[in-house]
Design brief:
The protein is mostly beta strands and 378 residues long. The chain has one helix spanning 181-185, and strands spanning 70-73, 79-81, 87-90, 96-98, 106-108, 114-116, 132-133, 152-153, 172-174, 189-192, 200-203, 207-212, 215-221, 224-225, 240-250, 257-263, 267-269, 288-289, 303-309, 313-323, 339-344, 350-353, 356-360, 373-377. It folds into two domains: 55-141; 152-377, no CATH class. Strands 15, 16, 17, 18, 20, 21, 23 and 24 form an eight-stranded antiparallel β-sheet that branches. It has a five-stranded antiparallel β-sheet with strand order 8-9-10-11-14, with no helix packed on it. The chain starts with 69 loop residues before the first strand and ends with a strand.
Length: 378
């Protein structure tokens, strides 16, 4: 069983961090281990990269919808109008970028462009400093070599596997530092695979199982993911992605095994970190499909989908997360670290009603609120 830490958060939940997506050889089963999760060749990895920097197939110069928009174009003398959370890629000479909306924007241009910005937009990439209005303070173009976000709680040592042939819990959790009480209050959790490694923050999704008119329905919310706070004092933006995997228990043999029956596509977004913008400006992710034709409009923000299970039985749910690495965006900035993680839905985030029940994935784990769990349709 994994080492537990009780988080002093509004939800009063307990979560265990996960190590990178490296599946280990199945351990020998014991009588108490009546269920195992086995690796399946059907689990698709995240795409190697996000296409085209998020830019839509056609040039776009003005925000046209709610949430994050990607404004991109290479024609000269164009005017970009960015709203809160938009990303701008201006490739034409003498373009004008209007981004004074009080909330963060990531802005890329060429030397002759002019950008009207808020302090939270700094640094602005590629544009001559004298053409940034007001000018970004020089200190915001650099990164402090000490990153206080890399603060970890927990004991070093080898993590303890709880499910054979699956990712394992541990070993390090992250405490928000510098203090930002709203992060934990909003349900964000942080974890790291290494004691001195970066901290990754997310809000785990909720999954609901319901039997309706003889149909076995699973409703899933989308997770929320944040960029790694790689550079203190600078708003980091990072491409992230996730996919949901649904397993069904096969009891034909003992110990029982789990087979993948469905995996959603991977969806991507480009959020900010949680430490260098006001929490009021941390908007829900806008999840898009990996298709340039779809990039111009958000796919969804919170509802992952409704899925019909093929028959009665026991099902568990896994989310595969990807943080895409990127080189330093400017001199003296740190690169963005890459990570691939798996997380099985805990009993705290799994709800069953109207003909379904919640059961532990591992029968000898007594605490359904915090341990990997499954839905059983009878």
């Amino acid at each position: 069983m994994c080492a537990r830490r009780v988080w002093p958060w509004a939800l009063r939940a307990v979560f265990c961090a996960l190590v990178p997506l490296t599946l280990v050889t199945p351990a020998a089963s014991t009588p108490a281990q009546s269920r195992e999760l086995t690796r399946s060749a059907g689990i698709a990895p995240a795409p190697a990269r996000v296409p085209n920097h998020g830019c839509p197939a056609k040039p776009k110069y003005r925000d046209t919808g709610f949430g994050e928009n990607f404004l991109c174009g290479h024609a000269p003398n164009k005017v970009f109008i960015a709203q809160a959370g938009d990303v701008v890629w201006a490739g034409g000479r003498d373009d004008t970028i209007k981004a004074q909306n009080t909330e963060p924007n990531q802005i890329h241009g060429v030397a002759s462009d002019t950008a009207y910005v808020d302090a939270v937009d700094c640094p602005v990439y590629g544009i001559r400093a004298t053409n940034i209005i007001p000018q970004c303070p020089p200190s915001r173009a650099g990164a402090n070599s000490s990153d206080p976000s890399n603060s970890h709680a927990g004991k070093p040592g080898s993590p303890t596997p709880i499910i054979p042939a699956s990712p394992v819990d541990g070993p390090f959790s992250c405490s928000p530092n510098p203090p930002n009480p709203g992060i934990s209050g909003d349900g964000w959790i942080g974890w790291s695979s290494e004691q001195t490694g970066p901290c990754y923050y997310l809000i785990p999704p909720d999954v609901h199982c319901t039997e309706t008119d003889g149909q076995y329905i699973v409703n899933a919310q989308a997770p929320q993911m944040a960029a790694v706070n790689a550079n203190q004092g600078v708003v980091d933006w990072q491409f992230v992605a996730w996919s949901m995997v649904i397993y069904r228990e096969d009891t034909a043999t003992q110990p029982a095994t789990w087979n993948v029956i469905e995996q959603t596509p991977f969806y991507w977004s480009k959020p900010t970190d949680l430490f260098d913008v006001p929490l009021s400006a941390v908007a829900p992710n806008n999840w898009r499909l990996f298709s340039a034709a779809k990039d111009s409009s958000p796919a969804f923000s919170t509802q992952a989908g409704t899925f019909q299970m093929p028959s009665p039985g026991t099902y568990t749910f896994n989310f595969s997360y990807e943080w895409y690495g990127a080189p330093s965006a400017a001199a003296r900035l740190k690169p963005l670290p890459q990570a691939s993680y798996l997380e099985f839905v805990s009993g705290y985030h799994l709800n069953a009603r109207y003909g379904a029940t919640v059961v532990p994935v591992y029968p000898d784990l007594p605490d359904l609120s915090y341990d990997p769990a499954a839905c059983t349709f009878s």
